[in-house]
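Q: Could you write out the predicted structure for this multi-component system? I'm mainly interested in how the pieces pack against one another.
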Amino acid sequence: MSQRIPVTELTPDFRGRAEEALADGQLRENFRVAMDSLMTKRANAFPDADEREGLRELGNRIKAGALSRLPDLLEQLEQKLTENGIKVHWAETIEEANNLVHDIIEARKGSQVVKGKSMVSEEMEMNDYLAERGIECLESDMGEYIVQLDNEKPSHIIMPAIHKNARQVSKLFHDKLGEPETEDVNQLIQIGRRTLRRKFMEADVGVSGVNFAVAETGTLLLVENEGNGRMSTTAPPVHIAVTGIEKVVPNLRDVVPLVSLLTRSALGQPITTYVNLISGPRKPDELDGPEEVHLVLLDNGRTGAFADAQMRQTLNCIRCGACMNHCPVYTRVGGHTYGEVYPGPIGKIITPHMAGLDKVPDHPSASSLCGACGEVCPVKIPIPELLQRLRQENVKDPEQPQQVKGGGAKYSRTERWIWRGWQMLNTRPALYRSFLWAATRFRALAPKKAGPWTENHSAPVPARRSLHDLAARHLDQNGGRPS
Amino acid sequence: MSQLFYDAAPNATRVSPEREADRHYPEKSEAVTLFGTCVVDLFFPEAGLDAIRLLEREGVRVHFPQEQSCCGQPAWTSGYRDEAKAVARKQLDILDRSGLPVVVPSGSCAGMFRHHYPALFADEPDTLKRVEALAERTFELTEFLLKVCKVQLADRGAPSRIALHTSCSARREMNTHLHARELLQQLEGVERVDHDHESECCGFGGTFSVRMPEVSGAMVKDKTRSLMDSGAVEMVTADGGCLMNINGSLEKQKQNFRGRHLASFLWERINGASAGEVA
Amino acid sequence: MSARGNILGKLRDSLAGTTPRPDEFDERLVTKPWRYAPGDRIARLRSLMEAVHTEVHQCRSDNWPELVAELLNKRNLTNLLCAPAKEHGRALQAYFEATEQRVELLAYDQPVEAWKEELFWNVEASLTGTLGGIAATGTLVLWPDRHEPRLMSLVPPVHIALLKASEIHDNLYDMMVSQDWAAGLPTNVLLVSGPSKTADIEQVLAYGAHGPRELIVLVLEDA
Ligand code: SF4
């Protein structure tokens, strides 16, 4: 798992990767411990269920309200940002976005970029794009830095290096940076601090993501604990923010509940160490801050999700990661199994719009639909409902027009016929009862192997008599009267 | 938050439904329909029979329409909407014939009636009305016993220690995860112990268990481990799917520990041992 | 067609025939649970900030420079970045001169480019004012300006912040609305709720990731 796998070259083999991950005891332990702790922290951050539910509902209403007037809001945002001196760029594809970023860097003859945490830049695979053009693009979030140093992808959207333990990080720092080995987390962090501090100072350009873009005031809001986001957006002479078009909210006050939902759901913190509101480049009388600030607004499939009112709800997401923290599947297989930028439940519902459902055909099925994700999502995205919808899109006839990009990848004539047979059995009472009769009378002949089921279970043996039989006899005997 | 807003356009931006108020329960009816569910029908029929007995003990007459089969959930969760809908329509017709309250000894099938039938028939306004009426009169067994019948259970069994597994549908769709606990609390001789990661899914998920056997298997292994580590002598659950999953796994692992349907457990407790052996 | 035109066009098409949802903001949800008796605000802020390794001192508005000297000396720090153009900077300077402190006072009085190396590697501590505080989350609000630029509260390993007790608000919403932030924000606003930290390795909390290792808050009550 050490090579970066671009989204576009995924092998659609979720099961194979899951099997490997499940066999890795250390990895499973790392995830279980981490997810348990994140779940507990979240629960403690919302001691009052009514308060929590009220806030989630408000979060949902704010995001839905924003989506219901998204084009107008984006125009308002652009106008306000422009008034504030921030230059706005639009990109339909990741190629366009990378090009825009590259052009801005070129114009400044930049060669060193330092990056705050940004999932959209991961989506763009910006590091690779810039590296191919001779520009060093260094991650500065500790977790992202570790992952980048090891040529990996983040395994969690909030905790990118959660799959690694201190020993593994120590070895990595030793091998790549020549640092003496230590499993003391404080010392490891100080190594990162020293190395990156020089980079912040020297960088020509800083790149960041955006948590919320406020249309009313033309403000970009970023939350973080480390200070690397502040460094990246303040120390270099140019700041480029990249974000998806869904991150805009109407009013400044909207960020109050949204930030609270975000930091409490993600980390169980009442607020992150830093909340950074950027409303413009350095003014003539100011002494620091970037001389130029740019915002790149990226589509990359979001307008596709937006086109479908049910799928549009996916764009409520504020990237808190709570859905993966609470997901029993994610906890067991870890982020890399998903083979995409966004793992876990949110990944399953957003990736099809970006890469196409045919690139991730197993993902909608990799869920027991237990509902834990939907229960915790701070903006109330009905994730299980959307997974179910994707399952429908997955098995549609590929010859027919598709509603979701890459739909129909799991179409199988045989399976369709099996379900037709199942339908017949369950809509014709006489047939169903004959089936019950046969299954119970010939129970001894029940196969000892029942496909994948018997990998984990003993072979199912029908009862001696069906409930249909038992109930009929019982109700007959006492005339259906209460005993 | 209750500003009224209605945009009928099908492409209108959606908001989450208003939070469900606590369910309002009707007076106990004279008769009900039992919807057995296909898993109970074939694999745990005695649990279905015990559910009937428990209801009769409360003076409720039980109907069991012989035409019933499956609620349609397997096809629905597999993405086969049309097939699910055909089966759902059939059950709807059968259950509408008497119009009686419907009691279901499985959280996930009750959840199918209450929450997924409306989604299946959203595009048929006339049927949707019938579906909503069905949702309104569908009860999970524990819910019906506790909230509608206001059952009082006198324990006649020997002291025992058990773990309770609640299905995800009961917990997150039906809001009935506390009902079974309350019922068990009425039994003097029964101590319910918590198990590790109690709210976590057992890994069944219908066809998930055969489409993703590796992940599902890891989940059920963890679940069975924590059940056995809890100090309980057995597990009870009010969901046939979870029961099949958990017991099948335990048997495969050659463990002696087993789970049982709550209906059978309750019936046995209030009648003393060996009450369940009929048929 | 431009990317902008395409994106906006697609979004508009998808919304054809729909009406925007009304604004359903409910300010009670972000204020009611976060209201405190005036006397409890300091205690709330203090306990939350201390829980994340912030050192909080309550002192009088006329004797705090003494405490600053003490804190610096205790840590053997040799310099402090402050803003002599501001009232608190002047007060500090006056005290340090009068008492002949060894600590060198530095000013951020030139563009960062002119002294980046020194700022990043040689400045040991900084002292800034704040616009106020927030009791609900244990937060300082900073509006950097010419005299106390953005990096001043970020780069030096120790940050000392002055917070007037009278400027502690119950919650962010109240503060933002009562001061009408929406009417115009400075280029950068910062909410700071502790020293820099990370839990990126094994979820073990480590302080001093990229920003200050130490945050010291002096809550100033009227003399
Ligand atoms: S889908 Fe919801 S829970 Fe998951 S990351 Fe997005 S906002 Fe958080």
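A: Regarding packing and overall arrangement: The pocket of iron/sulfur cluster is lined by residues A 317-323, 345-346, 376-379, 381 (CB under 6 Å).
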